[in-house]
Batch of 2 targets.
Target 1
Amino acid sequence: SAVISQKPSRDICQRGTSLTIQCQVDSQVTMMFWYRQQPGQSLTLIATANQGSEATYESGFVIDKFPISRPNLTFSTLTVSNMSPEDSSIYLCSVGQTGQGEQFFGPGTRLTVL
Amino acid sequence: AQSVTQPDIHITVSEGASLELRCNYSYGATPYLFWYVQSPGQGLQLLLKYFSGDTLVQGIKGFEAEFKRSQSSFNLRKPSVHWSDAAEYFCALREGSGTYKYIFGTGTRLKVLA
């Protein structure tokens, strides 16, 4: 399976600021996803990061709040914009390959917004 | 609508005892099913997966799961729990071929007593 790293691993941010989270994979992957895990909750898919085109967002998530980039097949970023305390969550990226079913997850970024 | 239900929010077992974590799904066709484990402060690790074929699947760390179509279940089992198994366990469903999006259950937190 792919080795996935995320930066930063955790951060504490002030209300109204933005944070960009990076996801790096050690091999080329077809699919990349971003999830949010709110405290004590399960995972919710934010969007599918598409290489070379705009991300595909799930219901309830919008590009202005969560802009995503995916410049190549090994790297993606998620920005959490204009943060509020409600954005305090763990953000995880995951990867998969077309034709294979499973996803592999990064270690997550723990975000606290004050 | 597709859904995944994990009826048990918390489970406590003694070390060495057997374990069964329940997962029920709602989906119109045969789903792709997964179990993931999340240790504190960590990302998600894939334990096992079911796509088709043999309904009893073996995974890592001594875990197995059985797919029962008649009961819409995919329960995770381990014959003898170790203290290091204490973690959160997530069942996930991927809609059939053509999409790679997951639906996660709410998770079951396992506590292991020495």
Target 2
Amino acid sequence: SQKIEQNSEALNIQEGKTATLTCNYTNYSPAYLQWYRQDPGRGPVFLLLIRENEKEKRKERLKVTFDTTLKQSLFHITASQPADSATYLCALDMPPTIYNTNAGKSTFGDGTTLTVKP
Amino acid sequence: EPEVTQTPSHQVTQMGQEVILRCVPISNHLYFYWYRQILGQKVEFLVSFYNNEISEKSEIFDDQFSVERPDGSNFTLKIRSTKLEDSAMYFCASGPGQGVATQYFGPGTRLTVL
């Protein structure tokens, strides 16, 4: 059966360190993978998208890698700050049946709750 | 910056009643979605919508659910006869379309079925 696993429910790190979150999947062939941030009681906020033919994407202090052989994505936050404390979700997107004319769907992992301590 | 908006923020209803959750997607977006999140659980896909028809739907999206884009701005989710297990946070999302997968989520409607 298809499964998405994010490395742990909770991750605690010290301010200034790099946070590394893991997303592993089985029995999927995603066209792309997305990372979102979710704060309590709020909707997910899009952070980064990486396509199946891309190895790495960066945006400011964020970096995502995507290894389709290992079926794994790593999400890094460098120079972490207490304001980075939140739940981070990975989501896999399947190729839509008819590309560009089908909205497709995203399948989310359970999320990892990151706490950055001052 | 444009945002997806949802109303109401909290809806309380009795089991068996019909509810309509409303969303205003970002104005030039073409793809629309509904997701739900039961408290403490993962975000679950319900349905996606493009060009006035459903693109994909999950097993959760049974005959009790329907979606509609009644005009050029609103996107609604209707639950015909609510059950206790429909209690959840319901998120609307929209995307630019044209093969761009990024989705922008609204703040959610918390549905409580008593």
